[in-house]
Design brief:
seven-stranded mixed beta sheet; alpha/beta; 206 residues; globular; 6 helices; Maf protein
Length: 206
């Protein structure tokens, strides 16, 4: 079975990809599974830039087909912030709750019509096919609005799900079950669909 490196140390993200790729005949490995503890640079100006940088970094070090992604929250009233800085928006020491609560604090008093936001994700897949290195990129977003308060439960690794409210469902993204979010809502679901032909090509090469 073909191995595919999912370039993350986030267990929740790795589990989500596992759910989304369950129908592909691929053996998914995390960075820990591959014995890689180096952190890739993230100096890009867009999510796609960072995804490509990370995919190339880990592809070279693992010699495995590699999928890397980057993503975060874009709040229109904050000029698109925190954007590509989502994970380190408040510095390396800020925990998930502080990140979520800071979004709510900065949006205090903003008119409901101006609270639009989205969780955006971009991914890059790099692999070798018949001796040729192939790269594919994909991008998707989940639209919502910033709530006036945080959802009480903040899932580790996904702070912004606790501030993004989904009007069409009448609930916070954090209230949606893990499987429902992965299969029906996640921007990574769209990314996997966009990369499906390449993932099938990888699986067929086993």
């Amino acid at each position: 079975m073909t191995e595919l490196l999912i370039a993350t140390t986030n267990p929740a993200k790795f589990a989500e990809y596992g759910e989304l790729m369950r129908d592909f005949k691929l053996r998914l490995l995390s960075l820990r599974d591959a014995g890689i503890d180096r952190e890739a640079p993230e100096g890009g100006s867009t999510f796609i830039d960072n995804a490509r940088i990370k995919a190339a970094f880990y592809f070279v070090r693992s010699s495995l087909p590699t999928l890397a992604d980057d993503g975060g929250l874009e709040v229109d009233a904050l000029g698109g912030a925190p954007g590509v800085h989502s994970h380190r928006w408040l510095g390396d020491r800020a925990d998930d709750r502080r990140l979520a609560e800071e979004v709510v604090r900065r949006m205090a008093g903003v008119d409901p019509a101006r609270r639009s936001a989205r969780l955006r994700a971009a991914a890059a897949l790099i692999y070798t096919h018949h001796g040729v290195t192939c790269e594919r990129v994909a991008e998707a977003a989940l639209e919502g609005i910033i709530a006036e308060r945080c959802f009480p439960e903040i899932r580790q690794g996904f702070p912004y799900r606790s501030v993004l409210f989904l009007p069409e469902r009448g609930c916070f993204l954090a209230e949606v079950s893990e499987r429902d979010a992965a299969v029906n809502l996640s921007q990574r679901r769209i990314i996997v669909a966009q990369l499906a032909n390449d993932l099938r090509r990888l699986a067929a090469a086993a």
